Amino acid sequence: MTRVALIAHDDKKSTMIDLVQEYEAVLSSFDLVATGTTGQRIMAEADLDVERKESGPVGGDTQIGAEVVEGRLDGIVFLQDPMTAQPHEPDIGALMRICNVHDVPLATCRSAGEYVVRGLARDEETRRQSA
Question: Binding of substrate: at which residues (predicted)?
Answer without folding.
Answer: 9, 13, 35-38, 55-56, 88
